[in-house]
Structure formats: structure tokens, C-alpha cells
Amino acid sequence: MDIPQRLAALRTQDLPVHGGRTMAYVYDAGLPELDELAGRAQAAFAGVNGLDMTAFPSVVALENEVVAQTAALLGGAPAGAAPGTTGGAGPGSGLGPRPGVAGTFTSGGTESCLLAVLTAREHARLTRGVTAPQIVLPATAHAAFHKAAHLFGLDVVTVPVDPESYRVAAEDVAAALTERTALVVASAPSYPHGVIDPVAQVAAAAAERGVLCHVDACIGGWYLGHRRLAADLPAPPPFDLAVPGVTSLSVDLHKYAYTPKGASVLLFRDAELRRHGWFAHASWPGYPVVNATLQGTKSAGPLAAAWAVLRHVGTDGYVDLSRRVHAATARLVDGVRRIEGLRVLGEPDASLVAVASDDPAVDPFVVGDEMRLRGWYLQPQPAFADSPANLHLTVTAAVADPERIGDLLAELAAAVGRARELGPPQVDPALVELAGALDPRTLGPEEVALALAAAGVGADGTLPTRMAPVLAVLQALPPALTERLLPEVVSRLYAG
């Protein structure tokens, strides 16, 4: 078998990345020419090293243009500026960022969020003398912020969200602020339920205490920003850098800008704030180092591919794609609500839909298994706090065709019927009781192996075809124990 054949054979085991049936992890515009265009651009810049922009000035030129186009959309237009309808940022576009907005191109949403937290930590230390920083997060904030707090030594203060709307209340955020608070986060939208936090109120509460406020618009910012430009679509509530008190915002281009993976932008209210997150080092015998991102050496390929796709699609194209996504999401939500046994959690503001069960005989994880066996992937989300177990659907332009949405809803209704016949997976109460007595910090290899075996995970990390029983067990365990076991599952997938 030659190299291309081997690669093609490996891909047969993966979820499809085109066609709209994989409703998580991948974003498909349904525009076949984008792959070839992005591939050519990425190949042309694959060997260009973004570590040193003085050696490769093309990196600066491309990043400046990508950041400018992003800032024009989400940086807050100057007073009196009219939204444009063609091209990106630049002459004649009619779009412009709020004066002073600065940005950084990163490898993805997680890196953008990490840098926002790192910047806030350094800003709080240098401007307010905070030595034991805290980050205030809604319970629905992305796990990337918890990762950032873990890596950079911030204490997390979690604020519960409303059990019906799944939005955080600004007064609860305000009550959680202390002299140690370095950053407050709001989501536009939150990943679990696709709802937008009250950004204006949260940002105002933060500003009143002199605290930075970051808006996580990684998954929704590009879609919401362009939806806002369409007069015939409902505008989202204010969420970007035009909102007083919002000091930074992250938006992924490899989501609803439909660029290849490895493309995100972190915007700051000004360049001075952005500098707090940069790293520079000259106290060694080697070359002077300055990094605006967590990476040092990095290929400029993803940047070039993102630049090419943004230029090709343009503002008009993205507004049209946003129309398609909005229509598809509305039809999906309406259709799910017509299926007996299912309900939509909250009122989705964007293109993410969380589908739970309102029938004890219908387990959403069993529904997910039934869908996957028939070529659809809906992402399972275990129950946590006031959020019940559900299936998460990311709606992209590729699934926007009315016939495709109809197929999805018909298959979903049939899967609910089969799930009702199969019944929910059963979890041994004795196992849950035993697990509750374990200390995740002291688990040895034998105890880990037993726990994974009880959950249905093979010794080599092999997962069963039906994941509902595994998810049911993991959902029933204390979160700290689940967090201890999940890395063990992944580690078994890799040799050595």
C-alpha cells in the first residue's frame, strides 16, 4: 500500500468532515471550492516560520489583514460608520474597528482563551498588585478557561446560571467579584446550550470594579457578526468590543468562517492591553525571543489558508451563509419540539442546539448511538448541575438544505422510537456507591483498570460501538473521579 492509499485507508475510520452529518468538531460551508483554495494557500506557506516576522514579513502582512477584517466585524464600529456589504476590512468596505483595537492570530479557540486569561493575570498583577488572582466564570463557560486557570495559577470562582435559560445573571457575577478578580468571562454563545449571556450587563459589572471582561465568541462570533449585517434576520444582543466594559474577545475562523483548522483571532480593546500577554526574553546567549502566542515556531500555513478563505467568501458570502444557518437552526428547533419524547434546552440564540429527553423511557445517549449507527454524529453531553443529559447539535451551512434538515429530523424521530424500545442503560448502584468512596488522587493502576472495565472500556482503550452504557456510568460518577479516569482512557489509545 502506498502512502496516499494508507492515508485514505486511515480516514475511512473517521467521521466525515463534509456533508453536514457530523454535527460537532467540523464546520462545513457546503462550498466545495474552499478546500482546494485553502489547500493551495496552506501548501504555499507551510514552510514559512511564524516565529520570526522580521525574517518572514509575509506573516505580518497576512496577520494584519486577517485581524483587520475580524476587528472590522467585531471590534465595534466607530460612531456613524455604516456596516458594509462587500469584501472584508479595507477601502470601500464601510466597516471599521473601534479606534485602537488590536489583535493576535492564534491556533484555535483554546489558545485564544488561554492568552486572554494570561493577559488578564499579568494586567491585574502590574496595574492592581493582584498576587493571588481569581477568574469569575459562569458555570457554562468553556473548559478552556478552567484549563487556563490551571496552567496559569488562577483560582476559579464559578457562578451558577439560571436553570431554565442557562444564562448567567449579571448581579450574581457582580456579587462574585473581589479585589482578587483578574477577569470576568461571558459567552456569546455558551457552548453547552447555545445561549448568549447578558454581555452588556456583565461587562458593566466588571468595569465598575475595574476588572477586565472577556467575551468568548469562539464558536458564534463570526456567524453572529454577519447575521447582524442582514436586515432580514434578527440581530443578536450586543456582545462585541462595541459594548462598554468588554476588553477582549475571541473568535475562531475555523468554525463559522469555514477556514481550515488552526485559525482563531483574539481581539483586545487596545495594543497596550495586548502587550500584557506577550513573552520576551533576551537574558540568554541565543537570539532575542518575543512571542505573541503560546507557540514559538509555527507554520504560517493555517494563517495563509484563513486569509485566502476570508478573501474568497467576503462579507456578502458570509452574510448569505449566516442566513442559511439561521433558517436551518430555526427549522431544526421547531422540528425537535414536534418529536414526542424530546425537548430543546433553553432558547438557542445562535446555531447550537441542545436536545434532551422529557420521557424517562428515552435516553438521549441511546438516541445518539442509534443516530451514529445510521451515519449521523450528535455530540453527547452528560448531565451536570441543572443541565440534564443531552445531545449537542452544531448547525452549519452544509446542513442548511431543507431536504437535509428533513432527513435529520426524520432519522431523529425514528431513533427516539428505537431508543424507547431499547430503554435506558442501567448503572449498577453498587458501582456508584463504591466509586463515591474512592479518592481520585490516590487511585492505583489496578483500581483504575477495574473502574474502566466497569464502565465498558477495554484494557487497550477500546470503546464499545454503543457508548450509552459508558456515558451513563461516567455521568453517575463524581466529576473528580471522571476527570481522573478520562486521561486514562485516552492514554490507552496511544502506544507507549
UniProtKB/TrEMBL annotation:
Q: Which organism is it from?
A: Actinacidiphila reveromycinica
User: Would the keyword Lyase be found if you checked this record's keyword annotation?
Assistant: yes
Q: Which residues carry this modification: N6-(pyridoxal phosphate)lysine?
A: K255
SUPFAM superfamilies, per the entry:
PLP-dependent transferases
Q: Which PANTHER family does the UniProt entry name for this protein?
A: PTHR42735, SPHINGOSINE-1-PHOSPHATE LYASE 1 (PTHR42735:SF6)
- Identify the stretch annotated as signal peptide in this record: none
Upper lineage:
Bacteria, Bacillati, Actinomycetota, Actinomycetes, Kitasatosporales
Kindly indicate whether the keyword Lyase belongs to this entry.
yes
Q: Where, if anywhere, are coiled coils annotated?
A: none
Name the keywords, alphabetized: Lyase, Pyridoxal phosphate
Q: What is this protein called?
A: Putative pyridoxal-dependent decarboxylase
> What is an annotated GO biological process for this record, any one?
carboxylic acid metabolic process
Mind telling me which InterPro entries this protein's record contains? Answer: GrpII_AminoAcid_Decarb, PyrdxlP-dep_de-COase, PyrdxlP-dep_Trfase, PyrdxlP-dep_Trfase_major, PyrdxlP-dep_Trfase_small
